[in-house]
Amino acid sequence: MEEPEANAEPPPGLRSLLPPREFLCSRKGQLLLAEAVLSFIIFICYIASSASAFMMAPLLEFLLALFLFFAYASKLNEKFKGLYWPLTDFLRCVTAAVIYFAISIAAVSKYSDGASKAAGVFGFIATIVYAVDFYITFNDLVTFLKQGSSESPERRKSEDEDSNSDSD
């Protein structure tokens, strides 16, 4: 009887749906997981509260965070180049932070039940998490754009030198 190898791959099944450990330990993975969990908690709180008019925003943010979590975990962003992923993620984080801040203020100030207050408090926490995510994503975007703009003048200069057209 053969003993299984220590480094053998786990059999395919439900384990193949889980994201890799490297992604879960990364900063982006932890932020996306925190965003999805907080959005789900806020969604549940709004369902149980009298402020149920606000439940659509956390639901959409939960689904978007979950989609991006699995998209980044499965490296879909490397396979599908038709979308500029960091910019999409940045815009999602900015809009989520603003929306969560606005509905949290409304939930805390307008409604008196405990579930609305809890949703508001979790909404403020989610605002901070989304703000941290869009700050980090913004710094990545700036770094990328600086690299792109520093290469562009050199390319233009080399293209101008290579052209033999005389405009005089």
Radius of gyration: 23 Å
Helix/strand/pairing category: mainly alpha
Task: State the share of residues found in helices, binned by percent.
Answer: over 70%
How far the N terminus sits from the C terminus, by CA atoms, comes to: 86 Å
How many helix segments?
A: 6
Sheet with the most strands, sense and barrel status: none
Task: Please give the number of β-strands.
Answer: 0
- Low-confidence region ranges: 152-160
Proportion of β residues? Answer: under 5%
The general outline is: globular
* Secondary-structure element order, N to C: HHHHHH
Mean pLDDT: 82
Structure description:
The protein is mainly α and 168 residues long. It is 74% helix and 0% strand. It is built from six helices and no strands. The chain has helices spanning 21-25, 27-48, 56-73, 76-79, 85-110, 114-162. It starts with 20 loop residues before the first helix and ends in a 6-residue tail after the last helix. It is found in: Membrane.
